[in-house]
Design goal:
The chain contains 20 helices and 8 strands. The protein is α/β, with parallel strands linked by helices. Helix 9 links the parallel strand 5 and strand 6. Helix 4 crosses helix 11. It is flat and about 70 Å long.
Length: 446
């Protein structure tokens, strides 16, 4: 996940201030030297780092620390506030029109993930009761049109295309006319990219912009390219006057510098971030929540939102009732596990929990394959067996193991730990027990 290295280095710098009663210029200077190196190693733009360090230093030197805060916490408070300011202060919503459709033009280099992002954005709008139309404007990349059509089918969103022999400007115009005809309130235009910025690409994009007059020109950039992503954003902004940025692959092994730098360099906000390969892996970009993640303070609001999206309220209430009366079954567990999977990888979710040291989660082993094995075993059971595991005898265990592609020992292990799991779920709020041994194991797992 992004920022792991940066978070660890920042926390290390802040810990050295714990015993200080007042922040002297020397204390701040030493801490800021470490913060500066951490930011530069995270590929944050040098000019941005320089200005950031000057502002934080000026605010921190000689300031009396509040009674409720340690000097380290006081510095974190200042850094947190300045990070939020650097990344845009608050959520930047999509520009819309009072005369639909709202037109969104996606631009960027080839390989940044524009086409997939078009599908993610359409699904996001659909979840908010909008009626989007996808327009296939990339006529150059092989299979780009087909890819968008497949995505449209997956999310049940129409795709407008005139093939790969028509001028992209005419395709964009036709898409908007189609949207007006069928009352689509959003049009998302997927445009062509190149391996690098060239005159031909930019002229085509300028022509589309001048004809369709989009409400949004969103630049899709690959955050894993680090400082190059910021450079690309700056060039596209100079040539097209973009309205915002979407960062992709923030879930990957990226240092995170683009997220911190791009708003300061271009003046244009980050509006969304791609956090995985699934079409549901799109997040609204909240500067305050991202600053919290960077500083290792968790992101409980995003965690709650993920849970609300993934977990059915009625079934959650029913599960709580069963837990209170000791009536949890393997059928219930299977349903809840399937809903949890919709929220994303467990390791990433844990990093959103305040109080957990994200720098130590690298030592925590969460084997997603074990979840799949447990799911397979439960699915291989009959309904009666799931609801009343006590009826599972030796012959039933043999059948379940064969049906799930696991061993009889695995079935025995799941059953023997079932009672333990019920107790654990009742006490799930006790997060302090998690990961003490550096290796997380769920009660169902060996």
């Amino acid at each position: 996940m992004a920022f792991e290295g940066l978070t660890s280095k920042l926390q290390s710098a802040f810990k050295k201030l714990k015993s200080k009663g007042k922040l002297t210029e020397k204390d701040v200077k030493e801490a800021m030297r470490e913060v500066k190196m951490a930011l530069l190693e995270a590929d944050v733009n040098y000019r941005v780092v320089k200005d950031f360090i000057n502002i934080v230093s000026e605010r921190a030197v000689g300031v009396e620390v509040m009674e409720s805060l340690t000097p380290g916490q006081h510095i974190i408070k200042i850094v947190n506030e300045e990070l939020i300011s650097l990344m845009g202060k608050s959520e930047s919503k999509l520009n819309t029109t009072t005369n639909p459709p709202t037109i969104i033009m996606l631009v960027g280099l080839q390989g940044a993930g524009k086409t997939t992002m078009a599908g993610k954005l359409a699904l996001h709008l659909k979840k908010h009761n909008k009626k989007p139309l996808l327009v296939a404007g990339d006529i150059y990349r092989p299979a780009a049109i087909k890819q968008l059509q497949v995505l449209g089918t997956q999310i049940d969103v129409p795709v407008y295309t005139l093939g790969d022999k028509i001028n992209p400007v005419d395709i964009a115009k036709g898409g908007i006319e189609q949207a007006r005809k069928f009352a689509n309130d959003y049009v998302i235009i997927d445009t062509a990219g190149r391996l690098h910025i060239d005159e031909e690409l930019m002229n085509e994009l300028k022509n589309i912009k001048s004809i369709v007059n989009p409400n949004e020109i969103l630049l899709v950039v690959d955050s894993m390219t680090g400082q190059d992503a910021v450079n690309v954003a700056e060039q596209f902004n100079n040539l097209l006057d973009i309205t915002g940025v979407i960062l992709t692959k923030l879930d990957g092994d990226t240092r995170g510098g683009a997220a911190i730098s791009v708003k300061a360099v271009t003046g244009k906000p980050i509006k969304f971030s791609g956090t995985g390969e699934k079409l549901t892996d799109l997040e609204i970009f909240y500067p305050d929540r991202m600053a919290s993640r960077i500083l290792g303070m968790g992101d409980v609001l995003s965690l709650i939102e993920k849970a609300q999206e993934a977990i059915d309220e009625k079934s959650a209430a029913e599960l709580q009732e069963k837990l209170m009366h000791d009536g949890l079954t393997l059928e219930d567990f299977l349903e809840q596990m399937q809903q949890m999977k919709k929220m994303g990888p467990l390791k990433d979710l844990m990093k959103m929990i305040p109080g957990l040291d994200s720098s130590k989660l690298g030592d925590v082993e969460i084997d997603e394959k074990e979840l799949a094995h447990v799911e397979a075993i439960i699915k291989a059971m009959t309904r009666d067996e799931r609801r009343n595991p006590t009826i599972i005898n030796a012959s039933r265990k043999k059948r379940i193991a064969k049906g799930s592609g696991t061993r009889i020992q695995d079935v025995n292990q799941l059953l023997s730990r079932f009672e333990q799991s019920r107790k654990m779920m009742k006490q799930f709020g006790d997060m302090g027990k998690i990961g003490k041994k550096g290796k997380m194991k769920f009660p169902f797992f060996k």
